[in-house]
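REQUEST ID: PR-0412
SUBMITTED BY: lab tech R.K.
PRIORITY: routine
TASK: structure prediction, single protein chain
INPUT:
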Amino acid sequence: MPAKPVVAITMGDPAGIGSEVIVAASPRVAELANAVVVGDAGVVRDAVAVRGSSLSVATVERVADARFDPGTIEVLEVDGGSGTGRSGAIDDHEYGVVRADYGAASLAYVERAIELATAGAVDAIVTAPINKQATRLAGSEHAGHTGLLAARTGTDVYAMLLVHDDLRVTHVSTHVPLREACDLVTADRVFDTIRVTETGLRDLGIDAPRIAVAGLNPHASDGGLLGETEAETIEPAVRRACEAGIDVTGPSPPDTVFARAAHDGEDAPDCVVAMYHDQGHIPIKMLGFGAGGVTGVNVTVGLPIVRTSVDHGTAFDIAGEGVADETSMVEAVEVAVRMAGERSELSRRRAGRSAVRERDDLDRR
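STATUS: complete
OUTPUT:
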């Protein structure tokens, strides 16, 4: 039986629910992967107490030192920037507050996890939520995880992919004002998003992905009656993707394409490319946010490393109360494990084909 993949879980903003959902998810996560938390052991111990958990917390200096005992949460502490001790520990932990030092710490956790993944020390990264106000106070130029991950891995073409059951959505733009988002709907950006979406779907184990592209305007402009973006920008990008061998259709009316994708019928696409943040997020969160908890996973496609995340924020209003739902964290780990496995299998197949070619070359000499 193959060894479980090693996953680095970043703790997120110390004032938020990240540590709580990590603690609550740990028993299930231990069944899926060998996990190490990149964050602050003191904050995780606070979360253990808040949740009334029997888990113990231990610190490790390297991933290689982790024992992956199901009864223990192992934390790799890093220098969290200003406001932290020499070991990276948070000195005066409090929930539900926006603080620059907490923003700096949450960014430091992500930076360290990226280093681990690019070095091959872990097979995937799963991120708990950061707070954008706190990271801006800390001086970050990025609106969230995605831009930081792309910058640190030298990735130019990437996209946010949200997953909830059978509905999957990627985005041409995300955290920008709506007026700016409309300007970002260019033929090149739409094509690049389609292309990276197909790669991401294959990483999820979908061998022959079918993609639908949403229009920008109501009814996908209704033949030009409601705008020209579809004819001038989106349609050329879809044609270009078809010529590249991608199974893609559109632009489709935004008010029906998500329902078609979610219902998993014979003609249902495997993913919808949305034109802007709320167009894609609203259908996902309508399905994923409910009385039974928060479900859904955020995946960054196009990166050379595997990164998934919970599909919720820091929830400062309930942080420290011990009621945060861990479902999305468990699902994020499940998806990360699946993607890591698919990439590992692809690497094995490529290595096998390379070895065959080398043998053939030797035979011909």
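NOTES: The longest helix spans residues 327-364.
REVIEWED BY: pending
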